[in-house]
Design goal:
The chain is an alpha/beta fold. The chain has eleven helices and six strands. The structure holds zinc ion (ZN).
Length: about 230
């Protein structure tokens, strides 16, 4: 057994006993996380560490490229996780979190590198809007700059996909759900947040207002049209 797998004994012996009161409460009362975080599966991006979250704080979904397939194209884990988080857990915030040096975004930038990986290639097609935006608006960018631009645009593209899910669009229309787009610069240890008003990412700073990609809308087209 490798050393890493063996660390589970340390969890049983030390970590769990130290948090036994918390786990006892969570077991008795059930979970009520306030946010869902959809991040890349990259081993260097750990949502709970970034958010300084304890057990019970955060509902998490991770996959290559922090992708959210649009509603109805496929029945899969991400769609089900989103639906459960919104409908059953009533999360108030969903965060889509990309990061620097992302292998999935490098592959999206150079699809020819995905020979022999048909599933990854098909999965990353959900990021096509991002790559088309970069190609048509920032065609002169190369290498690292192109991947960074693609990673940022991919967060926005996945937020757009997220809004196609009925559970999400309804919760937003009720004014119960906000959407956030984050980008973790793993070289600098800095987290950027998408400001939906400006369309730009800016560092999350203590004391500053938290940038929000899509505020809860609290809107009803019928009522507005009748006024
Ligand atoms: Zn990644």
């Amino acid at each position: 057994m490798n050393e890493f797998i063996g660390r589970v004994f340390s969890f049983e012996r030390s970590t769990f006993p130290e948090s036994s009161a918390l786990f006892g409460r969570l077991t008795k009362q059930g979970q009520s996380p306030t946010a869902l975080m959809i991040s890349c599966a990259d081993s260097r991006v750990v949502p709970e560490q970034i958010m300084q979250a304890d057990p019970g704080d955060l509902f998490v979904c991770r996959n290559a490229g922090n992708i959210v397939p649009p509603f109805a194209t496929m029945n899969g884990g991400v769609s089900s996780t989103v639906e459960y988080a919104v409908m059953a857990l009533n999360v108030s915030d969903i965060i889509i979190c990309g990061h620097s040096d992302c292998g999935a975004m490098k592959a999206l930038s150079k699809p020819e590198t995905l020979e022999g990986m048909p599933n990854v290639a098909a999965w990353l097609r959900h990021g096509s809007a991002a790559s088309h935006i970069v190609d048509s608006c920032m065609g002169d960018l190369e290498d690292g700059d192109r991947v960074r631009a693609l990673s940022l645009e991919n967060v926005i593209a996945q937020l757009n996909n997220l809004r196609t899910h009925p559970s999400v669009s309804a919760a937003m229309a009720r004014g119960d759900l906000a959407l956030h787009g984050w980008f973790v610069d793993i070289h600098e240890g800095v987290v950027l947040g998408l400001d939906g008003e400006t369309g730009q990412f800016r560092p999350l700073r203590e004391g500053d207002e938290l940038p929000v990609a899509h505020h809860p809308q609290n809107r009803h087209a019928y009522a507005e049209a009748a006024e």
